[in-house]
Amino acid sequence: MSLTQMSEKMVDIPSNHLNIMGYVDRSEVNGPGCRAVVWVQGCRRECPGCFNTASWPFAINQLISVDELVERILSESENEGVTFSGGEPFWQATALAEVARRVKAAGKNVMSFSGFTLTELRSPTAPTNAQVLLDQLDILIDGPYLESQAIHDPTSPVSSKNQRVNIFSPALSDRITWASDQIEVHVLKDGRRIVTGYRVQDYLNCCPA
Ligand code: SF4
User: Whose CA is nearest to atom 3 of ligand 1?
Assistant: First the structure.
């Protein structure tokens, strides 16, 4: 059984739903401008030094429908788009592609992180519907976090040297300006906190933004 088959059989997510670890309405350290961020639940890569080990299990964490997620993303009219992080977004490529399609139809842009390389995502062994999600993306940050190649630079949009910024929409080519070496603290209505930003170990972050 391939890694793809194994991982996709590890959890039963209802159709048109996502299993997510977290969500913030507005972030300025996870892509161009101000944007929503979705952290999906589940990653098999187990990169040493991963910033978000709690995202590894595939067990159901928070289920959210595609309809509800799209509504939440578009409710923040000042946001210019959404970023998918994790966990590994491409294990839930089918639902995320639909979210992306509808967000883009509303004039927003979509970016994703992935522990897979772009070459792997375009290969026959890629997760189901990886290409469908790729077709919707404006930007892809690809490649796993490699601790041995870590970058400690407040101007870098990636956190290890092997990672690549793939810009599929030329209009965003001069927008790779977010400072990933920043920290945001989001206080949710129920009192929980989400801390995101490069080098925020043990908090919510992935494939680090
Ligand atoms: S850094 Fe990203 S790809 Fe690597 S284990 Fe963590 S969540 Fe997975």
Answer: 115
pTM of the entire predicted model: 0.87
Q: Given the structure tokens 């599929």, which residue do they identify?
A: 168
Would the CB of 145 count as within 6 Å of ligand 1?
yes
For the chain, how many helices (H) and strands (E)? 5, 9
Domain 3-196 has CATH 2.40.10.340: no
Domain ranges of the chain: 3-196
Is there a contact between 33 and 174 (Cβ–Cβ < 8 Å)? no
Is the CB of residue 111 less than 8 Å from the CB of residue 66? no
Q: Is 87 in the pocket of ligand 1 (CB under 6 A)?
A: yes
Dump pLDDT digits (tens) for 48-75.
999 889 999 999 999 999 999 999 999 9
Atom of ligand 1 nearest to the CA of 113: 2
Separation between Cα atoms, residue 128 and residue 111, nearest integer Å: 19
Q: Is 204 in the pocket of ligand 1 (CB under 6 A)?
A: no
